[in-house]
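Reopening this ticket.

The earlier resolution said the output was attached, but the attachment link was broken on my side. Pasting everything inline this time so it's all in one place.
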Amino acid sequence: MQLQFSYDKKKVLQGLRYHFIWQPELRVLLVVILAFDAATAILYFMGKIRPQPFLLGSCIWLLFLVSFWYIMPNSVYKREQQTFKDTFLIVFKSDCVYLENDKGYVKWGWGEFTKFSESPNFFHLYFSPKSFFLVPKDNMIDEFKFDLRLLLSDKIKGAA
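Inline output:
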């Protein structure tokens, strides 16, 4: 199975947002911020506290959303911008994944991947919790996506 692809910036940014929301530490932080904000809102409306803690919680929530939605994805995209501008050929074989572009190639054995997940525009192939490769679905027909899902499920045991 092989696929030639390039990246679309808007879709990459969305794919990076999915990656970040799947991170356990961000989920915990989100729950803590929401719990703090809810508790301060209840206490404020009950007249037990002044409005400053509630406003602080709201500002923290807003900062979290801005950093998660804009700052983190854009910083990763900017850091890896040259990679996202290249055109690639990826070949999924029974023993490895082969990726090639004008600059060279890399061959990954299936054992190098720790897990995979799927978002609306990408297959995310993970080497570690923070290191991954995005395979766009843009040029894939439904049958190719189905076959790729089966292959990834069979070869990578840590499906998300």
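Reporter confirms the inline version is readable. The longest helix spans residues 51-79. The chain has two domains: 9-81, 88-155.
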